[in-house]
Amino acid sequence: MWRATTVQACGLWPFAAGSGAPMSGVPLGQHLFTGATVCGDPLSWFTRAHYISNPSLFMLGMPGLGKSTLVNRMLIGLAATGVVPLVLGDLKPDYADTVRALGGQVISIGRGVGGINVLDPGAMGAAALRIGGEAGRVLAAETHGRVLNMVAALITIVRDRAMDDHEQSVLSAALHHLRERTPPGRAPLLPDLVQILVEGPDRVRAVTLDRGDETRYRDAVDPLHRSLLGILDGPLGDTFASETSTRIDLNAPAVCVDVSRIGEADTQLTAAAMLAAWSDGLGTVAASHALADAGLQPRRWYFTVLDELWRPMRAASGIVDRIDALTRLNRTLGLGDAKITHTLKDAEALGTESDRFKARGFVERAGMVVCAGLPRQEMEELGHVVGLSRREIELVSSWSSPPGWAAHGDREEPPGRGRFLIKVGGRPGIPIQVSITDTERHLHDTNKRWATNEQVADLSKHLGTDVRRTA
Fold it and tell me: Rounded to whole angstroms, how far apart are CA atoms 334 and 182?
């Protein structure tokens, strides 16, 4: 209780680290101070509660504090309301078991496991043919833009620098020519695109301004030719050289693209696979909405998860432009997203000031910002972007401390595990404590590789499966 005169109390705002607990959306946990139930997710706060103007979430926090656990809870809760979760690039995997439990589709990508044909228009191409007319033509044009951006992204990864503007014009003309000459019912492949550059049709030559000179044409297309060969027989292997191994099912209740089979040190292939998965998944969302607009299927909402965002961002200079292009090309209606990384320093580590500025924009444009434990210096920097009070900075930075030296018994947890601060605009943050259920704990354990043989045997009895074999 506070007592003051009306002159003094008119400037008093005691709620510096928390506010009333919202009850719209997925039940997340309890308010850290009041114990009240806190509910929320980007879609519910955008569509029903109108707390945010952009159905997106950006999450930051140190490893091991429960970021993916909280997102898994959102996936389960949203799936129960009919929203379709899309995990586009699961690196560990953190979400594959949850998607399987929801009856969803898990697609594996990696060397010798499965691949993605980045020239395949996929669900968007099929939807354009099914819709037909002007709407189908518009969707087909959007498909061309998405394919162009994806091939340019792969070239950027192989080169470690962005493509030149005239090369994008050549690439666009070659893709147009390839699509026109490919028979119906067959998707073109990257080797087909290389063959177009070798043949040099008039449509492609006109863009190079070769003026009938073969030498000028080869000088214009050879760098692009070499980069495409590098995609087919270089650090990316044959992952993008053949047909898509498994297409995303438009009717699946949940989808996870599992890239965990790719080695930890294979950074270029990991980044390329994640970008290809994002492009394919967001294209599926666009196709679904186009079909719903045409009255050919019911409207569905989607929630995409882009985890470990720092890995593709560091893959090559200019890759941030491609990430931004992929996410901006989708039809925003009916699509929420969660971007997850460790700290703002992931953006600061990028090679150019332009990339750093654009990466910081991901945080600034997010409707919700969720913070797990972070060091004080990181929280100070985040405060300039999000607007954090001194009390909020102290609270979240205290969660980054490890357990005490005198801890005894079974695996003492760090004090910040399961604790998050939810920030929306200039409102006071909402500190919450997430307590997971036994089912969630068995579905999502990021420390499986550290389990003893006895623990694995106990878990097998609980689930009725041979966990040693499935893990």
Answer: 33
Residue with token string 């997106």: 56
Say how many C-beta atoms besides its own lie within 10 A of residue 398's C-beta.
13
- CB proximity list for 145: less than 8 A, separation 6 or greater: 329
Structure tokens at 353: 């000031």
Structure tokens at 325: 């292009």
Contact 164, 324 (CB under 8 A): no
Pick the closest to residue 99 from 71, 120, 127 (CA basis). 71
Task: Count CA within 13 A, CB hemisphere, residue 286.
Answer: 29
**Quick one: pLDDT at residue 469?**
40
Q: What is the pLDDT of residues 418-444, one digit of tens each?
A: 999 999 988 889 999 998 888 888 886
- Span 238-262, pLDDT tens digits: 788 888 888 899 899 999 999 988 8
The alpha carbon dihedral of 357, 359, 360, 366 has a sign of: positive
Task: Encode pLDDT of 168-210 as tens digits.
Answer: 999 999 999 999 989 888 889 999 999 999 999 999 999 998 8
Helix (H, G, I), strand (E, B) or coil at 120: coil
- SS3 label, residue 36: coil
How far apart, in whole angstroms, are the C-alpha atoms of residue 349 and residue 351? 6
pTM, full prediction: 0.82
Sign of CA dihedral 6, 8, 14, 16: positive
Q: What are phi and psi of 184, to 5 degrees?
A: -60, 145
Question: Could you give the CA distance from residue 12 to residue 94 in angstroms, rounded to a whole number?
Answer: 44
* pLDDT given at position 23: 86
Q: Is the pLDDT of residue 116 over 70?
A: yes
Give burial (CB, 10 Å; 0-12/13-18/19+) of 258. buried
Helix H or strand E encompassing 225:
helix 214-232
Strands 56-60 and 27-31: unpaired
Of residues 18 and 395, more confidently modeled: 395
Coarse DSSP helix, strand, coil percentages of the chain, rounded to the nearest 5 percent: 45, 10, 40
Query: For the stretch 350-384, what's the b/e string if a residue is b when 16 or more beta carbons lie within 10 angstroms of its beta carbon?
Result: beeeebbebbbebbeebbbbbbbbbeeebbebbbe
